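SECTION: protein entry
WANTED: fold as C-alpha cells:
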Amino acid sequence: MILPRIRFAVTVAAVTSLATGSIAAQYRHFRAATYVRAYEVQKMKALEWLRTNWAIVERQVKLDKVYLETHRDGIVIDDATLQQAKRFFAEKGIETAAGIAYVRNERNLFETFCYTRPEQRAEVKHIMEVSARNFDEVILDDFFFTSCKCDACVRAKGDRSWTEYRLALMTDVSRELIAAAHAVNPRVKLTIKYPNWYEHFQGMGYNLEVQPRLFDQIYTGTETRDSVYNHQHLQPYQSFQQVRYFENIKPGGNLGGWVDTANRLVADRYAEQLWLTLFA
C-alpha cells in the first residue's frame, strides 16, 4: 500500500471551487485528497513502484488531489522525483500540491526544529524554497510548532513565558517563510493545517489570532483517534467541534478537515471522523 499511514482530507466542493478555482469534484458533495509522506514520495523515483501502488489506492477511493510531502525527518525530496510524480498524477487528472512536515525526528517524541538557531532557520527556509519552486500550492502539515527548550531558547525567551516567546517566534518564522516562498514563486498559495488540539495551540507557538490572516488558507485537523487508550484523550465529538471552531478564525478560508488511520482500535472510529467532518 502506498500510504501505510493514510491521511485523508475531505473538503466541501463548493468551498474549494470558490477558493481555488478547481475542477468539479469526483464525489457529489465533497472533494477528496490524500497526503503522502516523504518516506513514500522518495520511492516515487521508481515510476513502476508508483504505478503499482497507486493502482491499489485508486481502486478504493476517487481522489481529486494529492499532497506530496517534500520534507519529514530530514528527508528532502529532489526536484526530479517531485516533477515525475506531478506528471504522473497530472496524466490522471489529479491535482498536486506540496506538503511540508517541519519535524526533525518524529520517532524521537516528535522532535521539533529549534527556530531560535540560525542554522535551523536556514534549513527550514530551504525546505520551503524547494516546495514553492516545484508547486503552486504548499501546505504546512501540523508539525509547524516548537517545543524546544534548549539553552539558546532559554536565553532568547528571557523573562517572557514560553507561550509569549513561542507565539512571537513562530509568527516571525511564518512571515519569513511566506516571503521566501513568494520570492521563488510569486503565484504560490500557502496553507497552514492546524492539528487536533484545543487549549494547547498557543503554548506551542500556534498563533490563531495572527497566522490565519498571514496564510492564504487553513485546513482543520479532525483526527480524534481513540479517546480512552490514546495519550491525547481526544473525544469523538471534537472532530465536529474543530471544524466549527476553525470556521470562525478564518471565515471562508477553511478548506475542510483531515483525518488519518493512526492510533485507534476499531475501524468505526475512522469512519466516524469522516462523518463528523462532513457534517461540520
Summary: Residues 162-184 form the longest helix (23 residues).
